[in-house]
Amino acid sequence: MDKVEELFKILKEKKATLGAAESCTGGRFSAKITAVPGSSEFFIGSIISYANSVKQDVLEIPEIDIKNHGAVSQVVAEKMSRNVRELLNCTFSVSITGIAGPGGGSQTKPVGTVWFGISGLKIVKTEMKVFIGDRARVQDAASDYAIELLIKTISSL
Description:
By secondary structure, this protein is an alpha/beta fold. Helices cover 43% and strands 22% of the residues. Helix 1 packs parallel to helix 6 and helix 2 packs across helix 6.
């Protein structure tokens, strides 16, 4: 069973729905989810918040959080996941915000740095990973990791 099908099975067992807020992956996570027939039974939708203005205006991330912590941060990932879950009215949500490259990295946040947020009624979880590779590889690895993180988190509840 592939990972998306495994996630689908867990969500179906829990009668749960899923939404997403993607930044650096630009919709790649949602594309992987919707590639599986029947995903409309649990996947509500996604907000691709590539620009900070979308993070602020649509996902209601305070400008001060982006200014103080950066768009790629634990604070922003957590708020993205919480807010998209409320906006889409879903059981669980995931957020993905990172630096896919080739530019945009720094000493403290190198290219490949990605923050994930997962939100549910009784859980908010964040995690950071650094992926190695070019832009496509970082986006693909981040999307795959988000699916694995959702499986691990939701199945433990």
